[in-house]
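Re-running prephenate dehydratase to confirm reproducibility after the cluster update. Everything else is unchanged from the original entry.
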Amino acid sequence: MAKIAFQGELGAYSHEACLAARPDFEPLPCRTFEDVIAAVNAGDADLAMLPVENTTYGRVADIHRLLPESGLHIIDEAFVRVHISLLGVKGARVGDVKEAYSHLVLLPQCAGFLTKHGIRGRVSSDNARAAREVAEWGDPSNAALASALAGETYGLDILARNIEDNDTNTTRFLIMSPEPDHSRRSDAMITTFVFRVRNLPAALYKAMGGFATNGVNMIKLESYMVDGSFTATQFYSDITGHPDDPEVQRALEELDYFTSYLRILGTYPSDRPR
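Result of re-run:
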């Protein structure tokens, strides 16, 4: 069976994304994002599932830095609605819980529920790991904040569902492959690329002008430092369209003139939730 690698333990939201987007693939848990990429490059997995951004938390740290040098190509995107459950040992009730464990990012997303019930949040390296450890401890005063899938995976009861403060909390994932796939066409294609502008006055302004004059919609533009330098700035962008579209081709040609580095990471159909 083909495998899809993800960061985290079984029951993580990335695992949930794998099951939803590639149900015919066997999920392969990895310790770090680097391990996910290495697993695909080594042939231990066929695809990688990597989170890039969350509507509440924002950009996932390190991902933009890893993608350009990963050797992988984006072939699809997937969205997971982040439903947070309070998970406890069999027979426990909400009133029994004194401490709830989860990833540092997840704890503030259900602060209202924790405060209301007098539960103290405790940091774990991974929400699915928190669920596994709560199951191992067997103490009704300890609970995990994680997905319902994590509860099912580790035999925990769902003491409360959908306790997140923001009811639109969603994570966007990229599905990556060793080989690019530019063959698919749909009415809503997305092209993702990274670039660095040349050291010229107004270079970024001029580089972006080609998208405006050619009517290409830029739906994301983010900057981040590279190589530990305050002067080396790289940009990550999503646009609508396919590189073979005449207007996109012209815009990218104009961009290339003002850049010292330009790399297309993938062209893929827009996922329905977008």
